[in-house]
Design a protein that fits this description.
307 residues, alpha/beta, four-stranded parallel beta sheet, 15% strand
C-alpha cells in the first residue's frame, strides 16, 4: 500500500506513468467510467476548499466510485477534540482511499502512519500540495510538450505558498529548469527552500521584485494569490495583496508561447481581461486536475486499467 504525502514520493518514471495515464483518460473518458465501481473515497477537509475537494469528488465519481467525508473541521468530530490519528483509523473502516487537507503541516503524514488505506495529502498548511503539483506538471507537459528546458516564473506569495514549494521540489528533477522568483521581500521563498533545495541541487534561479522585467524571459508564469489566511497581521496583508496584478499590458512583453498558470482561487492578481488571452491556461489547469487525480486514484488503488 502506498500513500502520496510529498511530490517526491513518486519517482520521475512513476510520474511519467501517471501523466501518460492521465492523458489517456483525457482522450478516452468512457473507457474508465466503471474502473472504480464499488470503491469509496473519503474526503477529510479540515480547512475550506472548492477546487481540490470537488476535483477529487469529480475524479472518483467519473471512475464509477462514490464519495463520503466532510468539508470543514466544524462538521467533523475534530470539533469535539478527536485527533487526526483516531479519525483516520475510523475512516479506514468506511472507505478504500482517503484525501486529507489540514491546516497543520505534517497532518497528512500522521494520518498515513495510522491508516490502513492509501492516504493522499490534499494540502497541509504552508508545506506541501502534491496533487496540485501533479496537476501543474500535467498542464505544463500538455502545453509545452516537455518538463525540462524551461524558465519558470513564480510570482506572489512564495513564503506561504505550498503549491510553489511543491512545484519547486518536483521540477528540479528535470534537466534545464531555471526559476525566476518574483515576490516582495516579505514574501520571499523560505531559506530552507532556497538553500536546501535550489542551492543544494545547483538549480539556476534569480530573485526579483519586478514582474514586468521578468516577463520576456519566461516560458511559464505561475501566479499565486497573497493568502490572507496565512497572515497574523491584517495590515501586512492589505499592504501586500496588490503587489502584483497581471494585466493585458504586462502580457504584451511575454513570449507568444508563454502560458500563465494559477492554482486558484484568484483574488485580483490576474485581471479578468487576461482570461481571453490564449496563453491564459488556469482554467484548463483545473480540468487537468481531474484527470491527474483520476490517474492517481487508479494507481494507489492498484486498479487494472481497462483495455
Amino acid at each position: 500500500m502506498r500513500h502520496l504525502i510529498s511530490p517526491l514520493d513518486f519517482s520521475v518514471s512513476e510520474i511519467e506513468s501517471l501523466l501518460t495515464l492521465a492523458s489517456d483518460i483525457e482522450k478516452n473518458r468512457p473507457k474508465y467510467a466503471h474502473a472504480c465501481d464499488g470503491k469509496k473515497l473519503a474526503t477529510l477537509f479540515y480547512e475550506p476548499s472548492t477546487r481540490t475537494r470537488l476535483s477529487f469528488e469529480s475524479a472518483m465519481l467519473s471512475l464509477g466510485g462514490s464519495v463520503l467525508g466532510f468539508s470543514s473541521a466544524d462538521s467533523s468530530s475534530a470539533s469535539k477534540g478527536e485527533s487526526v490519528s483516531d479519525t483516520i483509523q475510523v475512516i479506514s473502516c468506511y472507505a478504500d482511499i482517503c484525501a486529507i487537507r489540514h491546516p497543520k503541516e505534517g497532518a497528512a503524514l500522521v494520518a498515513a502512519s495510522k491508516s490502513s488505506i492509501p492516504v493522499i495529502n490534499a494540502g497541509d498548511g504552508g508545506h506541501q500540495h502534491p496533487t496540485q503539483t501533479l496537476t501543474d506538471l500535467l498542464t505544463i507537459h500538455s502545453l509545452k510538450g516537455r518538463l525540462g528546458g524551461l524558465t519558470v516564473g513564480l510570482c506572489g506569495d512564495l513564503k506561504f505558498g505550498r503549491t510553489v514549494h511543491s512545484l519547486i521540489h518536483a521540477l528540479i528533477r528535470y534537466c534545464g529548469i531555471r526559476f525566476v522568483l518574483i515576490s516582495p521581500p516579505e514574501l520571499r521563498i523560505p531559506d530552507y527552500i532556497r538553500e536546501n533545495v535550489l542551492d543544494a541541487a545547483g538549480i539556476e534561479y534569480r530573485e526579483t521584485t519586478n514582474l514586468e522585467d521578468a516577463m520576456e524571459e519566461l516560458d511559464i508564469l505561475y501566479m499565486t494569490r497573497v493568502q490572507k489566511e496565512r497572515f497574523f497581521n491584517e495590515e501586512d496583508y492589505i499592504r501586500m495583496k496588490d503587489c502584483y496584478i497581471l494585466d493585458a499590458e504586462k502580457m504584451k512583453n511575454a513570449k507568444p508561447d508563454m502560458f500563465v498558470l494559477h492554482p486558484l482561487p484568484r483574488v485580483n492578481e490576474i485581471s479578468v481581461e487576461v482570461d481571453d488571452d490564449p496563453r491564459a491556461a488556469y482554467f484548463r489547469q483545473v480540468q487537468y486536475g481531474v484527470y491527474i487525480r483520476m490517474a492517481l486514484i487508479l494507481t494507489l488503488l492498484e486498479v487494472n486499467c481497462p483495455c
